[in-house]
Amino acid sequence: MNIPKIPVGQLFEHLINWLTDHAELFFDAVSGTVTAMLSGLEFVLLLPHPLLMIVFMSALAWWLASRNIALFSVLGLYLIYNMGYWTETMETLSLVLAAVLISLALGIPLGIWAAKKDLAERIIRPVLDVMQTLPAFVYLIPAVLFFKLGPVPGVIATMIFSLPPVVRLTNLGIRQVPEEIHEAAISFGSNPRQLLFKAELPVALPSIMAGVNQTIMLALSMVVISGMIGAGGLGNEVLKGITQLKIDLGFEAGISIVILAIYLDRVTQHLGQK
Predict the structure, then answer these.
(1) What CA–CA distance (Å, rounded) separates 89 from 81?
(2) Strand ranges inside 136-222, DSSP E
């Protein structure tokens, strides 16, 4: 018995084609905004001499984390500079920062909304489940169709992949605020806005920062995959190493990604404690 096939793929293709035909102005505006953001971040990160940037990033690690992390930052970042991957590393950092900033701008309000409204949580939760379980390569398909090749679809695909943790942990953090704090804030006459910004968000900050940390780590894990659509940075170098069988190139670029990931992880872990 032949069972009729549900045309899921064709329906998705029709949706993508319809959006491509009827929402061109929207995608052009998004592309222009992301391009401007990336250009600005790359300009700021590449403007100082690499040695000055290493000193600044290490001092930041000392202030936010510890002396040992600062020492690791000096050695690790100088190794990246010495191997000749400084520009690619800053391009990668720009892409990650752009994707994370957009994720936080969307994810924290969504997390707050989910914490305040049970209906919103019931709608958002399955969407996040799909976003976290869908293979990362699938995000590249609509990103390339809407934004062509280059860093912009890389930022969009990275943003979608890294968004769920900050939404989930913001929602969880606010829901775990003790009831006594709610009652105390309301008894002192706080309105909903004051309750949120002066009581709930400060108490939920460690959970929110854990979400920020996870978002950054997921964004970094997309660096090599984004390189497949010409996002640039260290992802392109790793792919060159794979496709051209240049073991040294792939290993050095991979080590640079690891150093950047450890630096961002350790620094952001301590950010919420300041």
Answers:
(1) 9
(2) none
